[in-house]
Structure formats: C-alpha cells, structure tokens
Design a protein that fits this description.
Blueprint (H helix, E strand, L loop, with lengths): L1 H29 L17 H4 L4 E7 L5 E10 L4 E10 L6 E2 L8 E5 L6 E5 L6 E5 L7 E2 L9 E4 L5 E8 L5 H4 L17 E2 L2 E2 L3 E9 L4 E6 L19 E3 L5 E6 L4 H6 L4 E6 L5 E3 L8 E6 L5 E6 L11 E6 L4 E4 L9 E5 L5 E8 L2 E8 L4 E4 L6 E8 L2 E8 L2 E8 L6 E3 L5 H4 L8 E6 L5 E6 L1
Antiparallel strand pairs: 1-2, 2-3, 3-4, 5-6, 6-7, 7-8, 9-10, 10-13, 11-12, 13-14, 15-16, 16-17, 17-18, 19-20, 20-21, 21-22, 23-24, 24-25, 25-26, 27-28, 28-29, 29-30, 31-32
Length: 457
C-alpha cells in the first residue's frame, strides 16, 4: 500500500511538472511579437507613447559591391518593457526595402560576409549567442558557431579564412573556487579595484579570440589575450569598432588598457596592440602615448592605421585627435593639431588617400574629410543636424542623420558639395501625423559679455 501511494504521488508530481513545463512553453509562444505599430493618432502633439513607438535605426553596413545597405530597426513595447530588433535591406538608391528577419528575439551585430554572399549575425536562438548566417534575402538561416560561452561580437577576416570574436572570460578566482563546498553561494569576493562598471560587477573580462572559419563552421578558437587580466574592447562603452583586421588577414589590431587595480581605475591610458596570426606575437604601437587611444582602423592598402587618440592620461574629456600611424616607418602623426574639434567614427576612402569622420561643432554634428597628402581637413556638410556615422561608398557617402525634428534615418551624401538624399523612411507614417516645433538657433550675450548658444523650440 505504501509503495502504491509513493508511486501515485510520483506520477502526480511528474504530471504537474509536465503541465507546468507546457504552461511555460505556451506562455513563451504567446508573448506578443514586437514590431512596427500602425498608429492612428488623435493629436499632432508628441507624447511619450508616440516617442516610444518610433523605430530606432542602427547597425548600418554596406554590401561589398556597394549595391545594398543592411540595417537594423528596433521597436519597443511598453507593457512588455522590452524591445525587439529586426534586420532590413534596401538598395543604395532607396528602392527595394525588405525586412529579412522576423523573430521574437533580437538578432545582433549584422554584417556582410566579405564575398557578399551571406549576412552574418549573432543570435541566441540555440540557447546561447552564436554566429549565424543567412542569404541576403533572409532565407536559409544557419548556425555557424557552437562556441562554449557564446560570442559577444565578431568580425570576418577579409580573406574569409578566419573570424575574430570577443567573449567574457573569468581571469580571477571567484567565491566557488575559494569555497568549493558552497556551490550555491551567490556572494562575490573583491580585494581590489576595479570591481564595478556602472550597472554590473566585474566578475569576467572580455578577451579577443581568433578561430578558423570554412564557410560552414567555426573551429579551433584561440584566446589571443590568454592569461592576461585585461580586457578588449574597453569597458564599459567599447564595442567591435575597437578591434579590426588588417587587409591581408594576418594581423588583428585591438584596443586595451593593460592596467589592474587602482592604476586601471584612475587611468584612461589605453593602447593599440597588434597581434600577428602567424607568430602569435603582440606589439604595442602606441607605447608612450599617455591618453585614450582606441578604434584602430587599417587603410585599405594596409600601409597605415588611423585611430582616435586623446593626449593626456586621466582626462576623459580631452580632445579626440585623428592619429595616423605609418606601419613602414613606425611613426605617427596628429592630423588634427590645428583642428579644435573632436574627430570620431573614422572611415577610410577606398584609395587610402582620405579619412572621413564626424565632429560636433556648436551643437551640430557634421561630416568632415582629411586629405592626407595635403594635410587638410574639409567640412562636407552643413545644417541643423547630427550626422552619427559615415561609410564611404564609391562616389557617395552613406550616413545616418538625425535632428531635434526627426529621428535617425539613412542618407546618401555627396562628398563634393555635402548635399544629401534620404534613403530610408522608417518613421514617415508617424512623422506625417505630428507637428514638430520650430527650432531656432540663437546666440545670447551673457552677464560676463560672452556669447552663449541656446536653442529655442
């Protein structure tokens, strides 16, 4: 009798657990898809609800043949308190807009494979963040990597023989290493700085890995920073722009602040490191430069590396200089010594003769060009606007632009006269129903006889 009762109880518990699992699975299935909303407004005045209905555009890349733009648009849902991003493609002339993903989980880090035949992206569809690929029309989604711990970002080698990726690794013992008899302990042990970045504790550091890639799988990953108690990209705001391949696929340039403890906490002195794939040797090419050196970007001909550089250590608001390093001579030069502005988002022209960048002056973000041979910087665009990124594309530039009157959209820009043509209209339906306030730039004389810029909306 006793065995019967136990058996019945076990069956009941099993049935209950099964039902609970089915309920959870069903709940997952019933989570509403977050996408573009078809809103019919009853007022032409902006409200918080309307603002959160705008699509947020980003992750803009251009296909190798300069014919198609890949970008991501994220929409948010207030009741779910979350967002969902999807990838789209559009021809560079503004035709043929197509949504190529349609899932309930956001894909990340979309980019064109160097041969242009596939689009690579990160997805957690398999349970962890892995590299997936799909055709440019969104078909044939295929998981490429199965790396333990997942990927936080990646880049294809130009010759497609390898990929680099970043992954969080544990470099110092944690509570479970010190107290293995307490497997359920959730406490954390720190005995030095830096133990926290803004909203998270530093219990792992991002390292750069390189792995073989044959078009279908990723294998033989190698931590190029193995054993180092340092990170790349720089926390907490750095991304994949801080790590890049050389054009010949033989070298990885990455950003790192190789300091620990108190020195790490008070210093902004990061450097540019080159890792050679064949020799597995790493060299510091910005040694002696004491400020914030980030985002190394090889010229297409492989002879130079441009990066964003600050001069002084410990000064986060220093001028962001445009520094170019000559690989053959091992020397570098500040090309913004006579340019009293920041230079950000560096992008080489295809002939390696110019570098395009964005810079904010008097609260307006414009596109500029450095002509290296002439050592001359030219302002390309004008207007009350903020250009947020630029990609040289043949005889045109592809850029994202926003202002106080409209959210980010993609534009093509004429590099000769700065005229632009809008390519995407992600938020047109909402904007057509709104009356935006007039924006006026005014200069006001202050009590100490200075001129102060203010905006009247």
């Amino acid at each position: 009798m006793k065995r019967t009762i136990i058996l019945l109880l076990a069956l009941a518990l099993g049935f209950t657990a099964c039902q609970q699992a089915k309920t959870v699975d069903k709940a997952k299935e019933e989570v509403p898809y977050i996408g573009k909303k078809d809103l019919k407004l009853t007022s032409d005045i902006m409200t918080p609800e309307v603002l959160w209905s705008f699509g947020r555009l980003g992750n803009v890349t251009v296909s190798p043949d300069n014919s198609t733009i890949l970008f991501k648009t994220t929409y948010y849902d207030i009741p779910q308190n979350k967002g969902n991003g999807e990838f789209y493609t559009i021809k560079t002339d503004g035709s043929g807009l197509k949504q190529i993903t349609n899932t309930k989980f956001s894909e990340q880090e979309g980019t064109w494979r160097p041969d242009g035949k596939k689009i690579g992206f990160l997805s957690s569809e398999s349970g962890s963040s892995q590299l997936w690929e799909m055709n440019p029309d969104g078909t044939e989604r295929t998981q490429i990597s199965n790396v333990e711990g997942g990927l936080n970002g990646f880049k294809y080698a130009p010759d497609q023989s390898k990929i680099l990726f970043i992954q969080d690794v544990k470099v110092t013992p944690d509570v479970h290493d010190q107290y293995p008899d307490l497997p359920k302990a959730s406490g954390m042990i720190f005995n030095d700085l830096m133990y926290r970045h803004w909203d998270h504790f530093v219990d792992a550091l991002s390292h750069v890995f390189v792995a073989d890639y044959d078009g279908t799988t990723v294998s033989n990953p190698i931590d190029i920073m193995k054993g180092e108690p340092y990170e790349s990209p720089n926390a907490p705001f750095g991304g994949m722009e801080q790590i890049n391949w050389s054009p010949d696929s033989k070298t990885i340039a990455y950003t790192s602040r190789k300091k620990v403890g108190m020195a790490y906490s008070i210093s902004t002195n990061s450097d540019i490191y080159l890792y050679n794939i064949e020799s597995k040797k790493t060299v510091n090419i910005s040694e002696g430069m004491m400020g914030y050196d980030v985002s190394p970007n090889y010229s297409p001909d492989g002879t130079m590396i441009a990066w964003e550089s600050m001069e002084r250590d410990g000064y986060e608001a220093d001028q962001i200089r445009l520094w170019i390093y000559d690989i053959a001579t091992g020397t570098g030069k500040d090309y913004t010594a006579n340019f009293d502005q920041h230079a950000e988002g560096l992008a080489w022209s295809s002939d390696s003769k110019s570098v395009y960048f964005t810079s904010v002056w008097q609260a307006k973000g414009q596109i500029y060009r450095l002509d290296i041979a002439e050592d001359k910087i030219t302002q390309i665009t004008n207007g009350v606007q903020d250009y947020q990124g630029v990609i040289p594309m043949g005889d045109q530039l592809i850029a994202t632009k926003m202002s106080m009157s409209y959210p980010s959209e993609i534009f093509s820009v004429n590099p000769t006269d700065g005229s632009d043509n809008q390519i995407t209209f992600i938020n047109k339906e909402l904007l057509d129903q709104l009356s935006m306030g007039k924006v006026e730039e005014r200069w006001v004389t202050t009590t100490d006889n200075k001129q102060m810029l203010v905006w009247v909306i």
